[in-house]
Every structure is written in C-alpha cells, then in structure tokens.
Amino acid sequence: MSTAPDTGGNVMLLVLLLLPVVGALLMYPLRRNVPAAKAAAMATALLEFVLVVVTWVGYSTDAASSGERFQYVFSVPWIPAFGTHLAVGIDGIALVMIALTAFLVPGLMLFAWAEKLPEGRTASGYFALLLATEATLMGVFTATDVFLFYVFFEAMLIPMYFLIGRFGGPNRQYASVKFFLYSLLGGLIMLASLIGLYVTSADQLGAGTFTWSDLQSIAQSTPTSTQIWLFLGFFVAFAIKAPLVPFHTWLPDAGAEAPIVAAVLLVGVLDKVGTFGFLRYCLPLFPQASQVLAPLVLVLAVIGIIYGALLAVGQKDMSRFVAYTSIAHFGFIALGTFAFSSQAFAGATLYMVNHGLSTGMLFVMVGLLVARGGSRLISDYGGVSKLAPLLAGCLLLAGMSSLALPGTNSFVSEFLVLVGSFPREPVATIIATVGIIFAALYILWFYQQTMQGPVRGNAVIRALEAGGVGGPGAMIDPAVAAERGAGFPDLTKREIGVLAPLVVVIVVLGFFPGPVLDVINPSVQATITEVGLPDPVPAGGVVGGVR
Amino acid sequence: MIALAQVAPLTAPPIDYAAIAPLLVVLGGACVSVLFEAFLPRHQRWPAQVALSVLVVAVAGIALGVYAGSAPVAGIVTLASALSVDGPTLFLWGTLLVLGFGSLLLIADRSVEPGGAFIASAVERASVAAAPGTTTGPTGVDPEHVDRSYGAPGEAPTMQTEVFPFVLFALGGMMAFVAANDLLTMFVALEVLSLPLYLVCGLARRRRLLSQEAAVKYFLLGAFASAFFLYGLALLYGYAGSVKLVAIATAAVGTPRSDALLFGGLALLVVGLLFKGSVGPFHTWTPDVYQGAPTPITAFMAACTKVAAFGALLRVLHVAFGSTHWEWRGVMWAVAIASMVIGAVLGLTQTDLKRMIAYSSVAHAGFLLLGVMAITPEGVSSTLFYLLAYGFTTLAVFGVISLVRNADGEATHLSQWAGLAKRSPILAGVMTFLLLGLAGIPLTSGFTAKFAVFSAALGDGMAPLVVIALVASAVAAFFYLRVIVLMYFSETPEDGPTVTVPGAFTTVAITLGVVVTLLLGVVPTLVLGWAGAGGLTG
Q: Are A181 and B478 an interchain contact pair (Cβ–Cβ within 8 Å)?
C-alpha cells in the first residue's frame, strides 16, 4: 500500500546525513593528533555547510507551491516486516532547519577550538560528539518515514547526553541524566503512539506503514477519539523536547551545565525538533485532535511565555537565564503553531530559525564572559563594556535580537506570530504580547547588570588582578587595563570570527526575511491544507507586506 | 509362542529422524561427554570436552540448517505426536544452539579466571597451605582465602569439566521442552533441563557459600515449581482425558465439563513455566541465583532458560489455550504488569550488577509476556524475535561482567565500575552499547524487539498494557543509565578493579553478542522473516 518509491532517488540528503558520521568516525584514528582532528572536524562541518547551501539553491519553491510536498526524495525499504522505509526528503520547513544546523556547527567548532576541557577529555572526542549530534539532527529533520524519524529522535539523545555529561559544568552528571530520562520518557510515550499509528494504518490501508504521506492520507478518516490518544503521545514527547511548561524543568539544568557549544545546539536546534514535530507530525497526522486540543496547548504556551519571562528575571546564573528566556520564546512558537493560520505558521517556523540564531549568540556571549571571568553568576560581572566594548556591543545585539527589536531578525517572526494568531486566538495573543514587555525587562536588566556602570563584580576584579592590573578592591582605570589587554581582554580575532556570521545574519534577516519566507511559505500552505481549516488571513497579505 | 503370536504386533511410531536430528545430536553428544568425563585422564578432559561440545553444537546446527531448508511450512508432528517440529520450534532450536554455543565459549574460557570458573569443592583451597610457593597473595593471608588453581599442587590449573555434559544435557532438555507437543513430554524435558542447571549453579570457584546457597535455593524452588506443573498437568488430564495440547484445545471448545479443572490446571501449569522464565512474581530465585552462580552459567541461564521457558509457554498458551484466551488473559495481564513493575522498580535499588541484570531480566520477561499473550501470528513471531535479541545481548553483558575483576574475583558491585571508561574505553563502550540495547534504544536489537512485541500486543487489543510497558521501559532505562554514568562520568576509586584481557573464547562470545545486537537493530529483516516463517503446529 505504500506510495513511497522503493528504488532510491536523490542521494543528496543521504550525503548530508552520512558526511558528519564519517567525520565523527574519523576523529578516532586522529585522537592522538588533536590539531589534525580539529582541522578534519572543521573541514567536515564546512563541507556540510556548503552542501546545505547547494541544497538550498537547488530547492525549487515553484515545485513546492505547485504541490510537491517533499523534494530531494530518497526512499528504499528498510524493514519490510514493519513497513518502514529509509526515506528522506525536505520541505521548506525542514530545509531552513537543516540550514540553521549546518550554519551553526562550524561557528561552534571555532568557538570550541581553544576551549579548556575537563581533565582527561580530548578535543577529538568533543568534536566527534558535535558531528554526531549534527548527523542525528540532519536525520531528524529530513526523515519522511515516521519510524526513521523516531530512530533519529532517540539517537539524538546519545551524543548530547555525552556532550553534557563528559564536557559540562560541575553539576553535569545530574543534568545529563535528567535530560536523558526526560527525553527518553517522552520518546517512549511517543513510541506507544507510533505503534498505535502503525496499527491504525494497518486497519485502514490493509498493510501497516510508516510513510509520512500515506499516514497523512488516512489522517482525515481516523476517528477523532483515536486521534486524540495518538496526538497526546506525540505531543508529550514534543512538549518535553520543545520544552513547554510544565515539561520544562530539565532545560535550565541541561542548558546551564552543558558546555556552551552543546547548549547552543541543544536550545538552538535540538529543542526545535519539538516544535518542528508539532508542525510536521502533530498537525497533519492528527488534524481533528489538534483542533480539539489546541486550547490546551495554547494555555500551556501562554503560561510558558509569562512564566519563563518571570523566572528569567529572577535568575542568578547566566546560562539558566538564557534557558528561561528560551522557555518564553518556545511559548511564542507553540502559540503560532496552534493558531492555525498560514501567517502564524510561517511566523513560528521563522521564529525557530531566529531563536536558534539569537539564543545561540546569547549563549556564545555567556561563554565568552565565563571564559574570561570563570563564573556564571550575573552578580560577578559589572561594567564590562568599559573593558571590552566589542564584547558588550555583541551582547547588546544578541539581547536586542532576543527581545525582538525591529531591525533584528526576531522582530519579523514575533510580529508574524502575533498578527497571524490574533484573528483566531485574540485572548491568547493579547496575553502573549505582554510577554514582549517582560522580554525587554529581563534583557535590559541583564545587560545593565553585567555591562554598564563602574567596573565591579568578583569575577571581573579577580580576572583583572590575575592579569596584573588593579589591587584588591581598588578601582582601576579601565583604559589602562584595556590598553594592556590583560585581565579582561576584548574579543580576539577567533571570537570575532565566531560572532561575525551571526551578527550579519541577524541583521540581514531583520531587514530581508524574504528569501527564507519564500522557502517556508509553500510548505506552510501545504500544512494548513492538511489540517483542513480555512486560513483566517489569506497569505500574501501581511507576509507580502513584510517582504 | 502361540500367546505371543496372538498379540497384535506393537508397531513403533514412525520417527522423522531428519526433523529431530538436532535434538538427538545434542543429547547423544551429552552422553559421549559423560563418557569422556569418566574415562579420560584429567589433563585431557578440558580440550576434549571443549572440542566435543563445539562439535556437537555445530553438527546439530548443520542438521537443523539442512532440515530447515526443506522443512514443510506447516510443520510436522513426530514421535507419536510427542514432538512438534514446526516453524517456531526450528527458530527456537536455532536460537538455543547459537546462544548455547556462546555460553559454552564463556564456560570454556580459562584465561579470565585462571583455570576456569568452575570447581567442585572447597577442600581444594585448603591444600594451598601445603604448597607455599604457589600463593600469590601477600604473606600472612589466611590460606582459606587465597585463591589457587584447582588440582594437585604444582599441577597446571585445570577446571571442573563436568560442566560440559551438564550444559549439553540442559541444552538438549531445552530443545525438547520447546518442541514438546504433549504435557508429559514437556514435564520430562523440564526436568532434563532443570537438574543439570541446579548442579552447575553450585560450581563457582569463588564465593562458594553464595554459589551453593544459590544452587540449593534454585533447586528447592525449582522442585516446587515442577510440582505445580505436574499438578496442573494432572488436572488438565482430568479435564481433557489426554495430555496432548491439541486434545486440550479440542476439549475446551464447547464441552459441558466444569471449567474449574481446565483453568485450575492452566494456572498451576503456567506457574511452573513462569517460574522457569523468571516472570514476576515468580522471580524470587532469579537475583540470588544470577548473583551466586558462576557468571558463564548465569549467562547460559539468562539467555537459554528464558528462551526455553517462553518457547514452551508460547506453545501451551497458543496451541492448547488459544481458543479460551478471553478467560485467562485478565490474570496474565496482572502477571505481566507485576513482572514489569517488579523488575523495573526493584532493579533501581540494586547495587550489584549481576542482581541488577537479574531484575532487568524480570522486567524483560514482563515485556515478553505481552507478545505471548497476543494470540496472533505476530504474537508468535515477535516473541521469538525478542527471545533471540534479548538472549544475545544478555549473553554479552555477562561476558563483559566476567572481565572486570579485583583480587576477590569479579567486581560486580556498582561502585567498583566507577570511572571504568578512562581505563578501559573499549570495554566501557561495549557495555554501554549493550545496556542501551537492553534499554531498547533505536538501532539496537532491543528496540526492534520491543517494537515487534508491542505492536503485536497493540494489534491484539492490549493498548493499556503497552503504555504500562513503555513506562516500565523508561523506569528500567534509569538503572542501565546509572551504570553508564558511573563508567563515564565518575572518578575511579583508589582500589578499583582491573579489566582482564579476555581470551579468544570470551572475545568471540562478546563480539557475537555485540554484532547480533547491532545487526538486529539495523537490518533485522532476515531474522524477522525466519521468526515469522511458520505457525505453531499441534
């Protein structure tokens, strides 16, 4: 009954999938030669990025508009007894997600280039795990077979678990186990739904299948009560991953204890698998259930927006601070996803990318501060802008992007989400708008605490003393310190190399989101057709206006 | 003479020798093995027994392969319908032979524990005092507690080779057990497989008290379970007038007789089988025996006994009680839930690795019951696949456990495994992979097996049970994860154990387990095809 072709197809996505795996395996023979290992890892990540760019260029938005759901399709049977296929393909949403992944990884490697690792850990292992994470992310976004998606969804945990547990902060054991168990529990609940979906498809089609398009074709004829159960299984897994309140408690621990590069991948990309899952699996496969349960999700989303923001204000630890801001942002994405309009969908998708960029940059900035001061406490820093103006500027930009200031990338997506959600969900949207004010509050407060005012804070003073400037408790002349470049230096060339692409993309996407929206829109239209609800605001209205 | 001629000639039942050749080879090999033990001088026994055992398993495997190539899909019944050689039987025989081969390799290894893991009596240890030159421990140690090799002082280390005929007999009993088509044959096979196991449990070279306690406990509880089985058999005979599984099924359909005998008999019968399969709440022997028995024997029991017990359970429930499954399924639900919960929750509290794996096996037994309870072709094939997958993974796990040792033998306390990844990355990696397999992470056989079993159960209307099973899997994953955390993220203790470089036999056994765990996770199609090749024939 499967409509999936069994004879292969375009191998591009397979190459994207396997290249990081090969790179990761290459780290083992190179483990004694750390510089070579790093170079090989970087080369792999850059090549991957180039290939993704090629994929992007080859992706046809016209074909997508004219109803071709997936492009770069490849499919061979995998386990015929279960009706599974090794099937990959991308729509616009998946494309922007793999582009985000491939864009972030080389920069993160550059960031990790000279990172001080815990005792007994080698950079080759570190980079191998990064590449392995990238490979599983490629798999999870490109899979068009639900079983294959599940395999990558679970496999994704393992490299991330080791990244946190082996290379993380002082409390890494606790955080990594908590992360793993939460995700595994979610995954197993999803497995129950997955099997249920398979049995349902066997009832309706005569033979069980996991091919996404086959399952989508029977979605409208599945009884709503069945859909609700199956939806809930997927939803819990994705809500843990994305984290929606009340499934969020693992994120602050994992985000804080993970090494910065892992935190960026975790919050920036890996958690997006949850929101991506809502769009790709929950809505099209269980359309009636999605509509019935949407109020529940919206309540959780709005609670997340407000609650995440309030907790972010109260954080003492910078990494936890960023993690809580993310919980608020994920609320916006969930709001857009369950508002059922093409604008809100497009906004949510764009939000996923933008949040990956802005939060990624925020985490990197936190990492740069910690590398200098050796502490994650916000109160240990103060007046940094006098010592390291470039660093402070980048932090400001990252913060502005995070609070969705017009001119930065996030503004476009947040605006689209709110505008798109309003016609159908006015109350939720109005409450969510309050979240924007909170965002301004916590970001500006954070910036003011750490960057402005007189040079102060234990970490800063200690760093300066270690650098030979300033006595105990004495006010030092920041100009002198900056001149000497000692103690608390400004951005190095390598760090500028890490940040520059992020800065460029954040600003460019703030003014010209068109190319990304062009890719997203056809797939968003397809999704709303699959849900089967009329679009409250026809596309081309505001979306066109923003372009 | 005249009287004799008038008696109708007793015709021997036709025997399909080709079909039962694997079974005959193993049992015959066991008898030859006994003769070896009786007549060969001690120093020749080990090589002879190892060669014989490997040969026997290999010949049986070839016989099985040859027969399976031309076997009728519907299966046959032979030996006056005492044995049923059908698709599941052939699959289970193959599973038992391959797992038995792996266990024999672990048993035969003499490099991990010098001289092998088996010894007959504690007296031998005392004789070390007479040979002071052979002690390796620090001076002043009580000779009782100093390890020395078995055999006369000055003699090369040798091992207690009785273990080989025992294991071969047990293997033969298991093969007969899963093929038994009537309850009496099943009972005899049960005893043939059980008695050698009771004995070999007590042969551990180290921690003799623990080992002997395990053996006695296993024997007493096992005897009790056998009595249950026999009682159930008697009741069922009273109900159906026959011990044949098919006759019971026929009698159960539309007779005016009281159901009390039928279900009373079933309950008692199943208790005996669940005991062997270490299904909770009949699992109480499992942790003690797994911990006390020599590790290669634990591996053999964990892998093969489970296969045999569930093979027989599958046959009893599907052939004899398939038509009445609405009556007994409720009770089995309760048993499955109890087993999963006991295994997952008590596993969390264990500090000894072997006990932890024992509770994990109780939890897995609960998962397996889901497949057994699904009276569909998928139920049979998924259970068969699960047994194979679980057997290999657990075999390799015990192989790995036997390698981590300190001065007192195996270091099975969890704290002793801390920081192992730093000293022995390959071993830690292998163990991690196997534990992930037991936890059922995708791309390992554990996931494929769980998927097959759960989808069979869901397809036969057991959705709530599947959800409970998945939650239990998540809980159980925690204790597997704990070992991984210890190995990778903890600091090494001062007096940490050493990792023995495994000999060829152990290496082969572990490699086999790891490779199968991986292959069945990535490309399970072939084996799934074998498992689904034919139905049960009564």
A: yes
Give the single-character DSSP code of A19.
H
Q: Would you tell me how many other CB atoms lie within 10 Å of the CB of residue B513?
A: 30
Q: How far apart are CA A87 and CA A13, in angstroms?
A: 10
Q: Is the reported ipTM for this assembly greater than 0.90?
A: no
For residue A291, count CB atoms less than 10 angstroms from its CB and return exposed for 0-12, middle for 13-18, buried for 19 or more.
Answer: middle
pLDDT means per 10 residues in chain A (547 residues)?
Answer: 59 94 92 90 96 94 89 91 91 95 95 83 90 96 95 93 90 90 90 91 88 91 92 94 90 92 94 94 94 94 94 92 94 93 93 95 94 90 89 94 92 93 92 91 93 88 76 51 66 92 95 93 91 70 44
**C-beta pairs of B490-495 under 8 Å, 24+ apart in sequence:** B490/A173, B490/B418, B490/B419, B491/B418, B491/B419, B492/B418, B492/B419, B492/B420, B492/B422, B492/B423, B493/B415, B493/B416, B493/B418, B493/B419, B495/B406
Among A130, A276, A147, A156, residue whose Cα is nearest residue A215: A147
A350 CB-near residues (< 8 Å, 6+ apart): A96, A412, A413, A416, A513, A516, A517, A520
> Are the beta carbons of B176 and B134 closer than 8 angstroms?
no
The whole-number pLDDT of residue B157 equals 52
Residue with tokens 């050493």: B498
Residue of chain B nearest A196, judged by CA positions = B458
Q: Sort out which chain B residues have CB atoms less than 8 A from A157's CB and list them.
A: 441
Does residue B140 come out as left (phi exceeding 0), alpha (psi in the -120 to 50 range) or beta?
left
Instruction: Kindly give the residue spans of alpha helices, DSSP state H, lying in B87-157.
Output: 87-108, 123-126
Among residues A100, A473, A216, A165, which one has the least CA distance to residue B432? A165
pLDDT digits (tens, 9 = 90+) for A155-186: 999 999 999 988 988 888 899 999 998 998 89
Instruction: Tell which of A193, A194, A195 to mutate to test the B interface (max B CBs under 10 Å).
Output: A195
From chain B, pick out residues whose CB is under 8 angstroms from the CB of A166: 488-489
For chain B, list residues with pLDDT below 50.
122-156
Contact A150 B485 (CB under 8 A): no
What distance in Å separates the CA atoms of residue A223 and residue A286, rounded to the nearest whole number?
Answer: 10
Please give the residue of chain A at the shortest CA–CA distance from B486.
A173
Point out the residue among A79, A196, A202 whose CB comes nearest to the CB of B528: A79
The number of C-alpha atoms within 13 Å of B533 and in the hemisphere containing its C-beta is: 22
Q: What are the backbone dihedrals phi and psi of residue B410, each rounded to the nearest 5 degrees, phi first? A: -70, 140
Q: What is the reported pLDDT for A546?
A: 44
Compute the C-alpha angle B343/B345/B349, nearest 5°. Answer: 105
Maximal C-alpha separation, chain A: 80
Tell me if chain A has a CB within 8 Å of the CB of B518.
no
CA dihedral of residues A242, A247, A250, A251 (deg, nearest 10): 40
Rounded Cα distance between B441 and B443, Å, is: 7
pTM across the whole model? 0.89
Q: For residue A207, what pLDDT is reported?
A: 84
- Token digits of residue B414: 């969890």
Strand ranges (E), B431-517: 498-499
CA distance A191 to chain B (A): 8
Domain boundaries, chain A: 295-510
Q: Angle at CA B173, nearest 5°, toward B168 and B178?
A: 130
Q: Per DSSP, what are the bridge partners of residue A190?
A: none
Q: What are phi and psi of B436, to 5 degrees?
A: -65, -35
SS3 A72: strand
In degrees rounded to 5, what are phi and psi of residue A532? 85, 20
B chain contacts of residue A185, beta-carbon cutoff 8 Å: 471, 474
Starting at the edge strand found earlier in the chain, the sheet holding A85-90 runs: A8-9, A71-77, A85-90
